[in-house]
Amino acid sequence: MSFSITELILQHRVDKFRLHERYLNTQLVRVLKTIGYDRNYQRAIGQYLYDEHDNEYLDLLSGFGVFAIGRNHPKVIGALQETLALELPNLVQLDVSILSGLLAKEILTTTQENLNKVFFCNSGTEAVEAAIKFSRYTTKRSKIVCCEHAYHGLTTGPLSLNGEPIFREGFGPLLPDCSAVPFNDLTALEKALSTREVAAFIVEPIQGKGVNIPSDNYLPEVESLCKKYGTLFVADEIQTGIGRTGKFWAIDHWKVKPDIICMAKALSGGFIPVGAVAMTAHIMDSVFNRMDRAVVHGSTFSKNNMAMAASLATLEVIKTENLIENGAKIGEDIIYSLNKLAGKYEFLKEARGKGSMIAIEFKPPKSLSLKAAWLMLEAANKGLFSQMVTIPLFKEHKILAQVAGHGMNVIKLLPPLTLTQKDRDHIVSSFTKTIADTHQVPGSIWELGKNLASHALKS
């Protein structure tokens, strides 16, 4: 009998959760079942997921930003099929590949002119690991400064720069000489850099946990301070880059020139794991400064043909289909439309973001009945209100969204850049209906809230 992935999937199509409970992360399955997200998706096209009953779901997570061009784009599938059919030599480790050279060239056409070298890896966290190592070696300094509430990955190096305690707890000791300053605080940053002992300041141009946007002068002043004190300026564009915020790179909103850009997520269209680090020639030449150091840092699968081909095709799709412009237009319209609701509904603080990186933040209400309901949830688990909103969005409106971070009442949207006007209308009307429902106390949505609070207290 011949081996068939199709047959395997058909044979085990109802076993997905059982297999994960038995062989993978049992707690993740418990979470999905508790909040009612345990669906058997059968196929995916663009911004839509389809379950076994052919129900259509609008995916506003896009794999945490991975599927910026939507799922299963035919142009990327075609590039991968063509690459497989060519039977190219792949990962010949004492060689260099044509596709990685072409992709590096293409990436550098999108960056500022000071960046002219690329290092490839397999993920965003590997990109940050490389940035830490390269910065230390280039500057001959050991200290790394990041921002509070930052997220840079979960391996030991990036975890040392992670501002979310829940991710760090129990995994120490982490890297020494790593410290954090408040985001958007230039005074604190200058104090940290003025010792002239800091190799790199690594920052998300817009913080992913909460979608925190800096003031207009922050990143330009960051660039100036880094130059003043001999610190490398590292922009973590793993989530914000490749069109997410309405420009190819989020730093382009502020016209700054970092020494290093870390990228991953959307680069390959979601098909093949890939990451990259764009940097100045000085940094690359400092690390790989002799022939006996030509392989002093690397990653076995980093320049594999499939990842390179998928990335080349993805960049072509973004350009030819004007996805950055579309994502900016639809995203800004969603933010504007939801902000118009803020004066009408007490729980809604604001919608904010850039392009298709969007936050909807909630706040304590003023009226007594609503305040009592809010405090009930917050006492059980801080940030539970926003989770109470995402569940009916999913169950009743077939919209997949996420809470923006632990302990915060913020919902984050990272939709594909392919959203249509119809999608925009569905998003706005669904949020409007769900937010309106939260103001009906008692009501069905607050029964859900009580159940969530009960589960939180038991945990």
- Put simply, the count of helices is 18
Mean pLDDT, to the nearest integer, reads 95
Poorly predicted runs of 5 or more residues: none
Name given to the CATH homologous superfamily of the largest domain: Type I PLP-dependent aspartate aminotransferase-like (Major domain)
Question: Describe it for me?
Answer:
There is one protein chain. This protein has 459 residues and is of the alpha/beta class. It has two domains: 35-69 and 322-458, Aspartate Aminotransferase, domain 1; 74-320, Type I PLP-dependent aspartate aminotransferase-like (Major domain) (Aspartate Aminotransferase, domain 2), CATH 3.40.640. 43% of the residues lie in helices and 15% in strands. The protein is built from 18 helices and 15 strands. It has a seven-stranded mixed β-sheet with strand order 4-10-9-8-7-5-6, with helices on both faces. A four-stranded mixed β-sheet has the order 1-2-3-13. A hairpin with a 2-residue loop joins strand 1 (41-45) and strand 2. The protein is globular. The relative contact order is 0.13. The mean pLDDT is 95.
Task: Indicate the topology.
Blueprint (H helix, E strand, L loop, with lengths): L4 H7 L4 H8 L2 H10 L5 E5 L2 E4 L4 E4 L2 H4 L8 H13 L11 H11 L8 E5 L2 H16 L3 E5 L8 H4 L5 H4 L9 E4 L4 H8 L4 E6 L14 H12 L2 E5 L23 E4 L11 E5 L1 H7 L17 H16 L2 H17 L8 E7 L2 E6 L5 H13 L3 H14 L1 E2 L1 E2 L6 E4 L7 H18 L5 H15 L1
Parallel strand pairs: 3-13, 5-6, 5-7, 7-8, 8-9
Antiparallel strand pairs: 1-2, 2-3, 4-10, 9-10, 11-12, 12-15, 14-15
Helix pairs in contact: 2-3, 5-13, 6-13, 7-12, 10-11, 14-17, 15-18, 16-17, 16-18
